[in-house]
Amino acid sequence: MPDTVFAFAFAPEVAASNASLRAYLHGLPGVDAVGVQARAADLATRSIKTTAKATAIDLAIRMVDLTTLEGADTRGKVRALSAKAAHPDPADPSAPHVAAVCVYPDLVAVAVDALAGTGVGVASVATAFPSGRAPLEAKLADTRRAVADGAAEIDMVIDRGAFLAGDYRKVYDEIVAVREACGAAHLKVILETGELATYDNVRRASWLAIHAGADFIKTSTGKIAPAATLPVTLIMLEAVRDHYAATGRRVGVKPAGGIRTTKDAIKNLVLVNEVADPAWLDPEYFRLGASSVLNDLLMQRTKLATGSYPGPDYYTLD
Ligand SMILES: O=C[C@H](O)COP(=O)(O)O
């Protein structure tokens, strides 16, 4: 049965005050938690075989934002990660490159230099990642620095404290300001769904970010559990699907955090196909934020092509 598609009209005056934003967001239909969990669980049981699986694995590799977001990150680590992003399987040039490498702002220039001419983008977290707790001026400076150093994509975090306190206008205004600071760079807005407490809040935060100008909505920082669960990704896919139906603007979705295996990746692709539509099955509109899924995708790819797994030391460490 096809999903009901809601068109949530959003006139500019809705953003004029916190009260009008609140009325809009709390007027959205409530999420049927049991239904969403059951549907996500059902879709997670779908399996993909042989040729379709090979295609899905290559698509998943092309959608990976290969991420390192550790306090201990070094220039050398980012160079090594960038080499892997551009040529994931040095023994098999047919393996596609990933979508982007995602790093802290101070390492953007290193990644840009290492990835020049490869087709792999550079994404950077900004706005006081992962907490989002800094004055707006600091968040904008963070964003501008990353863009000036060559980041083509900015992954910002929302102020969850403001959101949970009902200060939607502050969250909306910050996204608008960061969107402007991004210039030509794409903006991914991280909702940090593991801190939003309810599915209704995930739906509200999705619509808030979409209307404020997000190019992508992203589940998580990877620093808070639970991160990218299937029910949460499903709710976000519904939002971008319905927004597209209402406006013709296609916003992307990026589950991130805790995606470790080829099975995890393929479950997400099934969700995209069934909940949104196949037009989202493209790195332009769907990404997988992950620090360590790439090796498993490469191993399963080799297994499909040759019939056996490569040895455990075959790939560089994630
Ligand atoms: O944006 C991506 C996440 O930070 C990566 O999280 P992960 O280490 O659980 O894959």
From TrEMBL:
UniProt-listed Enzyme Commission number(s): 4.1.2.4
Keyword Lyase in record: yes
InterPro entries, per database record: Aldolase_TIM, DeoC, DeoC/FbaB/LacD_aldolase
Entry GO terms, CC: cytoplasm
Catalysed reaction equations from the record: 2-deoxy-D-ribose 5-phosphate = D-glyceraldehyde 3-phosphate + acetaldehyde
Organism superkingdom: Bacteria
GO terms classed as biological process: carbohydrate catabolic process; deoxyribonucleotide catabolic process
Pfam annotation, one family: DeoC
Keyword Lyase part of the UniProt annotation: yes
Recorded metabolic or biological pathway in which this protein acts: Carbohydrate degradation; 2-deoxy-D-ribose 1-phosphate degradation; D-glyceraldehyde 3-phosphate and acetaldehyde from 2-deoxy-alpha-D-ribose 1-phosphate: step 2/2
Entry GO MF terms: deoxyribose-phosphate aldolase activity
Record keywords, A-Z: Lyase, Schiff base
PANTHER family in UniProt: DEOXYRIBOSE-PHOSPHATE ALDOLASE (PTHR10889:SF3)
Family: Belongs to the DeoC/FbaB aldolase family. DeoC type 2 subfamily.
Name the record gives this protein: Deoxyribose-phosphate aldolase
Gene name as annotated: deoC
